[in-house]
Amino acid sequence: SWLRSTVYGPLIILPNKNAQYPFAKPHKEVPIIFGEWFNADTEAVIAQALQTGGGPNVSDAYTINGLPGPLYNCSEKDTFKLKVKPGKIYLLRLINAALNDELFFSIANHTLTVVEADAVYVKPFVTNTILIAPGQTTNVLLNTKPHYPNATFLMTARPYVTGQGTFDNSTVAGILEYETPSNNTHHSLKNLPLFKPILPALNDTSFATNFSNKLRSLASVQFPANVPQKVDKHFFFTVGLGTNPCQHNKTCQGPNGTMFAASVNNVSFTLPTTALLQAHFFGKSNGVYAPDSPTSPLIPFNYTGTPPNKTMVSNGTKVVVLPFNTSVELVMQDTSILGAESHPLHLHGFNFFVVGQGFGNFDPNKDPAK
């Protein structure tokens, strides 16, 4: 549901009582939520896209904690301001609540230390810019300058884009303000210089790849990385965009009058009217889902080469059924059927280990050793 683009807020899970963070204790913790603003009814926007088979209309602005900031028309008063003290450590809890867009984020003249991603501690690393996917959380430490800087600093976010569809090509901004010293009576914030960060280009895949490669498990005694050494199941999923035929007497906005359809191993998911887990636990899965989702492509092809002529997908509510305590190795292969695209993956209720990634077609003989 696109209702998630309307009213939202953070749910913050704290460590156990008296437990310590595996990093320096912050002076203060601040949630920062990236979102999107639509002038239109968001349910109508996605309903139209599903009906016509085209991409949904884009948002009118991005927001930081619900505010679009000074780079949009008539929005200067609606700007999030992060007020800090010199020489302190702030834990910024970053949450991307945007619907579809991965976002670059940076604070001018400051670095950020990434310490956590999606509720898992990582080996800390310092960066000028972070990349955060929709639905993702990232915790970063902000070390403020040791002395009052006599300046203010923009913090901005804008999308990282790899697909061919339309997107909101705008930038949201907030302001980092230092608390004015009590003996400083000569400067007002309006007269201070305002520094702007430099974000990567919209399609900077090199930065995105380098950033994601830095995400490593903390792998400490207290927070070990217990990667399974024995694999019970091997799956190979091709992921990408295909098409469905346009229904009779309708006009569709996908390629050549078809409808866009995302698929895994050429099966596009049909949303059931009964929840999958509900059907499973009550023993009433018959007619709700089929347990025969393919775990490898039915017809292998050159996934990143010249796109095939046939782009139609099959449709169904199919699942993979696994016994409890099964260790699965999953290779996800992006395809270029209708253009390659960077897209996040989320697995409900589970953590997983990323043990390799790369470009081009996966080679089962050479790539596992990497």
Structure at a glance:
It is an enzyme of class 1 (oxidoreductase). With 370 residues, this protein is mainly beta. 7% of the residues lie in helices and 29% in strands.
CATH architecture of the largest domain: Sandwich
Radius of gyration (CA) equals 23 Å
Count of beta strands: 17
Low-confidence stretches: none
Q: How does this structure look, described?
A:
It catalyses: 4 hydroquinone + O2 = 4 benzosemiquinone + 2 H2O. It is found in: Secreted, Extracellular space, Apoplast. Its main location: secreted. GO terms for molecular function: copper ion binding; hydroquinone:oxygen oxidoreductase activity. With 370 residues, the chain is mainly beta. The protein is 7% helix and 29% strand. It is built from three helices and 17 strands. The protein has helices spanning 42-52, 205-213, 276-281; strands at 28-37, 61-64, 81-84, 89-96, 102-107, 112-117, 120-127, 129-132, 137-143, 152-160, 172-178, 194-195, 233-244, 259-264, 267-269, 314-316, 328-334. The strands form four sheets. The chain has a six-stranded mixed sheet with strand order 2-1-4-9-6-7, with no helix packed on it. Strands 3, 5, 8, 10, 11 and 12 form a six-stranded mixed sheet that branches. It has a three-stranded mixed sheet with strand order 14-13-17, with no helix packed on it. α3 links the parallel β15 (267-269) and β16. The longest helix has 11 residues, at 42-52. The mean pLDDT is 93.
